[in-house]
Design brief:
Length: about 375
């Protein structure tokens, strides 16, 4: 392999490290994952890049080396210890069991296995221990809406015991892949400079085709993320509820979510109302959050300091602020959390789970 920067990278010491396959290496989350693998402590031996037939033969940079992309097939998993899947759910549903049958531990970022009781749902800062018990050889990460808030919430839960959760999400369009980003950029161009947003339907007429969303995403918010589910909920809203219950180990948690798409390219936000078994205080919440790995507190609203997607995008931690005790309930906290949906919301969580599995091997 030819190093991209022209500097030879010695393979010495890598031979006894686990082999990693990145499946979906060319996608939005896969691209961020390759960047993270290049930045983080290098625990991997060979890194094999896999995507569809369409991308076979392309070269992508990882750890400063150009690596050729292989087409997905059974043989790409030969000798692979860990396979990170960043592909559509139907592709993961078909191929993750194939990789597991060939001896790889699969870390899946799709929704294919998140509700499977034989597949642990893991957020390393909250329930790393769960990754060890994987009857199907597959470990899943939650969706990006849950991942935006769960690290901060898990830290508060460890102190005060969560009893009830009500959240509203503000979700970025890159979660919808290239189509979402193209829709936002195209619609912003269509409305730029015009006096729109003053009459019913004027934005809708200006943007024309609304792309992957049922309403314009420029100059608007769309209170429907996911697909229709029972009783008026969306699949995304029910997923936030179920995933939070699973990761926190609270199967009976009362939890509701309203999931909203907003005109942000990347980085989700979540407004959280969390009720606990014990009384809470803002000072203690700040201390807990400041000490929680993967969380940064940004909370001086009078000075204009609070988390926003524009400031949090491209960073690894989740950003928590606007922490308040509910005026009518001494056991309830309100807070606002932002997290990059392609980093902690996807690729970073996968990289962390993969590193847990790699560390198990080092213990053997
Ligand atoms: N984007 C987010 O914010 C986010 C957050 C959390 C979880 N996720 C989940 O992560 C997964 C990937 O999302 P993404 O946004 O990165 O999608 P994406 O940009 O559309 O990328 C999809 C990737 O899957 C590959 N792929 C598609 N069909 C394939 C097939 N039949 N065989 C082999 N490879 C195939 C593509 O390869 P080609 O380039 O060759 O087509 C590409 O590498 C999805 O399950 C998504 O739900 C995404």
């Amino acid at each position: 392999m030819t190093p991209a920067g022209g500097f030879p990278r010695a393979p010495i010491g890598r031979a006894d490290r686990p082999t990693l396959a990145v499946v979906g290496a060319t996608g939005a989350a896969g691209t961020v994952l390759l960047g993270l693998l290049s930045e983080r402590a290098d625990v991997w031996g060979e890194i094999r890049l896999v995507a569809s037939e369409r991308s076979a033969g392309r070269k992508l940079a990882v750890r400063g080396e150009e690596v050729e992309v292989l087409a997905l097939g059974e043989e790409v998993f030969d000798g692979v210890d860990v396979a990170m899947f960043d592909v559509p759910a139907e592709v993961a549903a078909r191929w993750a069991p194939v990789a597991a049958a060939r001896g790889a531990v699969v870390v899946d970022n799709s929704g294919a296995f998140r509700t499977d009781p034989d597949v642990p749902l893991v957020v390393p800062e909250v329930n790393a221990h769960a990754a060890r018990n994987r009857p199907r050889g597959i470990v899943a990460g939650p969706g990006c809406a849950t991942l935006t808030m769960i690290v901060a919430l898990g830290a508060l839960h460890a102190e005060w015991a969560l009893e009830e959760l009500v959240v509203s999400t503000y979700q970025a369009v890159s979660e919808s892949g290239r189509r979402g980003v193209e829709a936002l950029r195209g619609q912003l161009a269509a409305v730029a400079g015009a006096e729109l947003g003053v009459h019913p339907g004027d934005v809708r007429r200006a943007v024309g085709d609304t792309g992957p969303y049922a309403a314009p995403i420029a100059l608007n918010v769309v209170p429907f993320s996911g697909t229709p589910a029972e009783d008026g909920w969306t699949t995304e809203e029910l997923a936030v509820r179920e995933e939070t219950r699973r990761v926190l180990g609270l199967p009976g948690l009362r939890a509701t979510a309203t999931c909203v798409r907003v005109p942000v390219v990347t980085t989700h936000s979540v407004s959280v109302h969390a009720r606990f078994e014990s009384e809470v205080s803002v000072g203690k919440a700040h201390e807990i959050l400041a000490n929680a790995p993967g969380v940064v507190v940004c909370d001086d609203p009078v000075a204009g300091e609070f988390p926003t997607p524009a400031d949090a995008v491209g960073t690894d931690p989740v950003w928590a602020g606007r922490v308040r005790r509910s005026p009518d309930d001494p056991r309830a906290l309100e807070l606002f959390v932002c997290g990059d949906n392609l980093r902690k919301g996807a690729a970073l969580n996968m990289a962390q789970i993969g590193e847990l599995v790699a560390a198990e091997r080092a213990e053997d």
